[in-house]
Write a structure and sequence with these properties.
Layout (H helix, E strand, L loop, with lengths): L13 H36 L1 H8 L4 H26 L3 H31 L22 H37 L9 H25 L3 H7 L2
Helix pairs in contact: 1-2, 1-6, 2-5, 2-7, 3-4, 3-6, 4-5, 5-6
Length: 227
């Protein structure tokens, strides 16, 4: 017997509501792909035009934090997937625990990213505020600092946009945890967890693209500098 208290007035049945909610999220994610896709194409174009300068800028980014954050997000994707499974199988305790763990991992990612931004500022890698580095940290004379700043602006825009999406995802996770504790998320009504899971996985996938584009571009250049 369907629980009609879960059915919004504009739908005929729970199944129709579930399909509409899922389609709505996929449509939203399609628009997000257009936004990030345009940014990736612009970045790739300038990266092709100024490879040496972009590599020099990339070599100054914190690959260790970027790599750790990648592992954090991949783990959060696992716990998010387990959350969907727990809801579909009516395992309330598991659902709350997995959602909470996903929330903690998301918080760890944001915390590490904020610390990374701080180190970028400390190292004079913030165009318009604190740039360029001086002394031993200065860029070689063969590097065009304008192009370095361009790459760094792409870095801040892309990671900042990703950061904002993570923040939204954290808010959605808090909402799910509250509802899960109230017993409002069940096998009959698991769609909220599923659609938030889709959003969370999308944000994680975006980061998987950001890691090589921004952080790993300069590893070859960094190796050359140490030869």
């Amino acid at each position: 017997m369907a629980n009609h208290s879960l059915l919004a007035h504009q739908f005929d049945n729970i199944e129709q509501q579930r399909e509409a909610e899922t389609l709505g999220m996929w449509t939203f994610l399609a628009t997000e792909i257009l936004i990030f896709g345009a940014m990736f194409v612009a970045y790739a174009t300038y990266r092709f035009w100024y490879p040496h300068d972009f590599e020099a800028a990339s070599s100054r980014l914190n690959v260790l934090i970027g790599g750790v954050n990648t592992l954090v997000l991949l783990t959060s994707s696992l716990t998010m997937a387990l959350s969907v499974y727990a809801c579909q199988t009516d395992r309330r305790a598991m659902l709350v625990n997995c959602l909470t763990l996903t929330l903690v991992l998301g918080g760890a990612f944001l915390g590490l990213k904020l610390y990374e931004y701080y180190t970028d500022y400390r190292d004079s890698l913030v165009p318009g505020f604190k740039f360029p580095p001086t002394g031993e940290e200065a860029f070689p004379a063969t590097v065009d600092l304008q192009h370095v700043q361009l790459m760094l602006m792409f870095y801040y825009i892309l990671t900042g946009l990703h950061f904002s999406h993570m923040t939204v995802g954290m808010g959605l996770l808090v909402w799910l945890v509250v509802r899960a504790r109230r017993g409002e998320l069940t096998a009959e009504h698991y769609t909220p967890v599923e659609v938030v899971g889709l959003y969370w996985h999308f944000v994680d996938i975006v980061w998987i693209f950001l890691l090589p584009l921004l952080y790993l571009t300069g590893t070859h250049h960094l190796h050359e500098l140490h030869l």
